[in-house]
Amino acid sequence: MQAEELIILHTNDIHSHFEQMPKIASAIQQYRDNSISDSIVVVDCGDHIDRMRIETEGSEGSANIQVMNAVGYDMITLGNNEGLTLLPDVLQHLYRDEASFKVILSNLYDQTGQVPDWIYPSYILDRRNVKVGFIGITAAFQDFYELLGWNVTDPIVAVREQVEIIRKHADIVILISHVGIAYDKRIAQEIEGIDVILGGHTHHLFEVPERINQTYLCAAGKFGQYLGTVKLTINRETKALIHVAGEAIPVEPFAPHPQVEAIIEKYRRISTQNLDYEVACLDEPLHAGSHGESPLGSLLASGLRKWTGADIGLANVGQLIEGLEPGSVTKKKLLEICPSPINPCLMLIRGEDIAWAIEQSLTEEYRNMPIRGFGFRGKILGVLCLDGLKVEYDPMAEPFQKVKRIWVNQELLHPHQSYRVGTIDMFTFRVGYLSLKKGKVLKFFLPE
User: What is the pLDDT of residues 70-111, one digit of tens each?
Assistant: First the structure.
């Protein structure tokens, strides 16, 4: 029996960790040097872009695209960090005008219900006389996508539809997924006809592929620490898939690729220049601390309150990496101290739930709580910063019994009354101060 071998190299959730991309490029180059030229397919499963990094923010994502072009990606899907932190016209420019790879995504539509001309719901790639069908999906944060003029649909429904279409014409079907490990496993259990799922979104790592029914699940962790590899062995005559093998390879041992390093350095210089303009000048320092009242944290809460037109402003000081010293404040500096791509929102929250969040904020357990994901780019939750509230509390009282009285605009906070609160969308995901999630979202401000 004669067989063909195809090698799929995949990344996911790089989140603009540019320091890893030259090593990933060298690893991919080594595979190309040691393989038949057209047997390699390079794929990214979303969230390559993250606006926390100067190179990305200062170039509106161009740095990421040019690095991916240089590495030689063949196709990608979009993650929520691409879809929800960049405006549609910016996405169109990046992926239609700059990218040399294809965007595969089957559950994202514009306001007219059409698929943009730079997106393929599915795509068949012919390599070594084997037709490999690719389908892409992304996490369906419809409340957020709608504010940007998108309609994102159920990814499982989208996959089922595309598999039915593409399976008739493809020898192999690969799903490029940015919906997370739980969805990937569900898809493998419920939908026939998918040979491999390349996963992302939940930052999970499969050191070797995991098989569910006839589908192999693969994922390469987070932040570019690994390069995923999948070797497909296909019967040359029948085109049947004979064998699947793979592993996630640490990229740390690889020497950085000089061309990719040069591109990153170029965009670091350009982006620094683009962001190095003054937005404010301080006469006094604005400190940010995690365990007490923070002038800069209070300013953030005040800004949220005013921006959303609320009665109360709430924000956790953990959003702030450090404070500000007297003198000029640039946009670059603001990005450095507050890198999280998190948006304001207006909520209606009962007084008792606000009071309980403040009680939690007065405990070491909550102030020092590590937070990962949900747009948060800090380390710990930190104290809850307030605006529009006055709190009387006893620091020596037992935990969760410290608050004595709370005033809102000179009136005592009523436990059963609902208040308009300007805060951050992270709290709507049931993260951090959990009682705030009980409120009703009136409006997301996206992207801000």
Answer: 999 999 999 999 999 999 999 999 999 999 999 999 999 998
Residue written as token pair 């170029």: 266
Task: Evaluate the omega torsion of the peptide bond into residue 339 and state whether it is cis, within 30 degrees of 0.
Answer: no
How does pLDDT run across 309-332, given as a tens digit for each residue? 999 999 999 999 999 999 999 999
Q: What share of the chain is helix, strand, coil (3-state, %, to 5)?
A: 30, 30, 40
Q: Express each pLDDT in 15-74 by its tens digit.
A: 999 999 999 999 999 999 999 879 999 999 999 999 999 999 999 999 999 999 999 999
Closest CA to 78 of 41, 40, 111, 118: 118
β-bridge mates for residue 83, sequence order: none
Q: Where are the beta strands (DSSP E) in 84-164?
A: 102-104, 108-109, 119-120, 122-127, 130-138, 151-152
Element (H, E) at 29: helix 21-33
Asked if 50 and 81 count as a contact pair (C-beta separation under 8 A), the reply is yes
Distances (CA, A) of 91 to 2, 55, 82: 43, 16, 8
Looking at 140-253, which runs of residues are DSSP E strands?
Answer: 151-152, 172-178, 196-199, 210-212, 215-219, 226-235, 241-250
- Nearest of 144, 149, 45 to residue 90 by alpha carbon: 149
**Number of residues written out for the chain:** 448
Map out the domains of the chain with their CATH numbers: 3-271 (3.60.21.10), 278-444 (3.90.780.10)
Nearest to 315 by CA among 339, 341, 287, 345: 345
DSSP 203: -
For tokens 């793979």, the residue is 246
